[in-house]
Amino acid sequence: MMPLRAYLHLRYLLTGRLLREIGWLRLAFLVPMLVAVVGRALVLAATHPRWQWAAPGFVALTLASAHRQRADIRFLATSAPAYRRWLAAEYFLWALPVAVALVGFGDWGAAFLTLTLAPAVAALPPARESRSTRQRARSLFRSEAFEWVSGMRTGGLWAWPLLLAGAWWQRGGPLASVLALAGWLLMVLPCYGTSESVTMLVLAARTPRQFLRRRLALGLGYGLLTAAPLLWLLGSGPAGPGPGAAVAVGLAWLMLLGLLILVKYAFYPNSTHIRITQALVVAVALTMVGHPVYPVLLLVAVGGVIWQSQRRLRRVLGQ
């Protein structure tokens, strides 16, 4: 039986291997952006008497989403009966920096809750074992939008009502709706982080331009449909920025979602590069939002990934 120390050492080696695959150039851009985004969000939450309690929930939701999609659960289950204790220890270590930061701001209760909820995630079943194929309810999304069908089954369907309830609870101010929109974008992000098989792409594609147009129509259509209640709360709140600002936020949100969809096919089929580039895009968007350079940078990025995604698809499809 593999001891806990050996398991943690193995996870350390796998993480190092993944970082080497990403490359130091990408990490030089990605790590500072992610640290800035997470640090800024953590400071805002820790200094607020109510939002400090959102940090434990966000950490637990992030770990739960990653845990339910792990592909090594069955291997760990056959390696040792106590594998869930290993997972609990791993998740405890991932949550420890957040708890230390909360303690630094004097939020002892939120820090304790963070370290309590994170290990508890290990008790959740993997997504593919929660229901059999026959027992699954019919999806609310069209089968053609397979990203949304699979992504919502692994967490989106229960995260969306929670985000909507939080935005409604704090509807007196715009911060809750904006944070809910950001959280929903992070929940949608994994839907487009894994490439479909080449066979699916070949069967669905006529030309790269038609294929991308259809993927964008489905993704942005469902994105608008699910984000609309949050945008309505943002524009109709008594202390909100008004309908015009809500429309502007919605357009920026949809443009960012479209950029993430295009990134998927610009780096197809390398899922690691897709996820890293998408994380970099989200990090830049969250750190530079409101900056005068941001709209120009966003438009240039959209133009670049449109060209690269069509070029990549032509190569894959042999056109």
Automatic annotation (TrEMBL):
What superkingdom heads the lineage?
Answer: Bacteria
Keywords associated with the record: Membrane, Transmembrane, Transmembrane helix
Transmembrane intervals: 91-124, 181-204, 216-234, 246-267, 279-307
The name of this protein is Beta-carotene 15,15'-monooxygenase
